[in-house]
Amino acid sequence: MKKIVTLLLGGLFTITFAQAPANYYDGTAGLTGYALKTKLNVIISNGALDLGYGSGTGGLWQTYFTSDRDVYYENNNTLLDMYSERPAGPDAYEYKLGRVADGGNQCGNGANSENSCYNREHSVPKSFFGGQSAVPMANDAHFVIPTDYYVNGQRSNYPYGEASVATWTSTNGSKLGTCTFPGYGGTIFEPIDEFKGDLARMSLFFITRYEDKLSSFTPYQSAGNPLDGTVDRGYKQWFINLLLKWSAQDPVSQKEIDRNNAVYVRQKNRNPFIDHPEWVNMIWTSTLSTSDVAAFNQKISIYPNPVRNGELHVSGYGLDQVKTVQIYTIDGRLIQTINQDLKTLKKITLKNREKGTYILKTENQSTKFIVE
């Protein structure tokens, strides 16, 4: 089944921001750069639970029952695997959650082809930080995700990247190949566009949550390991450039919001870059040139959502290309037109602050937001 989308005013809109518990991010106001990252490390580490890798029904296996069900594409409660999901449908195969003994398709071992079973994939490979015994990293559901066993094996411990020519391609289009992204020329794994932002924000979560442990990962550094040995930037600059590009290219989705909430219920911590995607560019800086980023679709994100003080902030690549912003009511009435330099002044003051649902429209994007 194809993913169901709603079109309004010629553009796709979604509610794109989660709401963290009140006061969860206290102490972050006014912080930027690595000081903000360090504060977030404290917040998302305090009280965080290590539920274990899982044996049979526990740990990650149990978390996946609430964090990774497909209620977005096929909408049939099967496993949502970002390495095999076809957003436009139909999927080549689907997995039922749970042990084989209970009618599910989870496994520790699989066949030499896709569609045998699903297991647990460290989106930041565990070889980068010490292996399966390195806890709590190895057990963290915020970046350890369920995937097809065989595709997981093909990805191996290659970093994420972009390749113009594939040496191997999965059934949904994820691929291996030689990296063509500026700054790295080794073998990489490239997921499909639909999930690049998800995986980028998981990677940024990792170096934030484990900031105080990053220096201990130095013995595992290699040419293919993008960790740079520092506790501030965390990754080599080429990889930061990639993650910032993907985060902008694929903004936060409802799937990510729901997954963040589900993992929070289990682990008692959150991915802050799903709750506040603007923090990505407030902490790290891309060194990509204008020509480097011109090749992908420009998208902007808005926050906070819901809006409570009449100020709507924007972030993302391509803000200098946005000439006009229009605000519509949910029934299509134009109520405000904004002509300003969004790259310099990344804030819109709303004229209409009445509670309700509105649409922000640019030349090529429409996004729904709520005023409370």
Q: Using only CA atoms, what is the Rg?
A: 20 Å
Number of β-strand runs: 14
Order of helices and strands: EEHHEEHEEEHHHHHHEEEEEEE
* Count of alpha/pi helices: 9
Can you tell me the residue ranges where pLDDT is under 50 for at least 5 consecutive residues? 1-17
Judged by helices, strands and strand pairing, the structural class is alpha+beta
Distance between the termini: 35 Å
- How does the overall form come out from the CA principal axes? globular
As laid out across the biggest beta sheet, the strand order is: 11-10-13-14
- Integer count of domains: 2
Keywords:
Immunoglobulin-like; disordered N terminus; globular; 14 strands; 9 helices; 2 domains; four-stranded antiparallel β-sheet; signal; 372 residues; three-stranded antiparallel β-sheet; alpha+beta
Can you offer a commentary on this structure?
Belongs to the EndA/NucM nuclease family. GO terms for molecular function: hydrolase activity; nuclease activity. This protein has two domains: 33-285, no CATH class; 300-371, Sandwich (Immunoglobulin-like), CATH 2.60.40. The strands form five sheets. The protein has a four-stranded antiparallel beta sheet with strand order 11-10-13-14, with no helix packed on it. The protein has nine helices and 14 strands. With 372 residues, the chain is an alpha+beta fold. Mean pLDDT is 89; it is low at 1-17. The longest helix has 14 residues, at 196-209. Helix 4 packs across helix 5 (237-249).
What's the SSE blueprint?
Blueprint: E1 7-8, E2 11-12, H1 33-45, H2 59-67, E3 118-122, E4 144-148, H3 149-155, E5 166-169, E6 175-178, E7 187-190, H4 196-209, H5 237-249, H6 254-267, H7 272-275, H8 278-283, H9 290-293, E8 301-303, E9 311-315, E10 325-329, E11 334-338, E12 347-349, E13 356-361, E14 366-371
Antiparallel strand pairs: 1-2, 3-4, 5-6, 6-7, 8-9, 9-12, 10-11, 10-13, 13-14
Helix pairs in contact: 4-5
Keywords: Hydrolase, Nuclease, Signal
Organism: Kaistella jeonii
Family: Belongs to the EndA/NucM nuclease family.
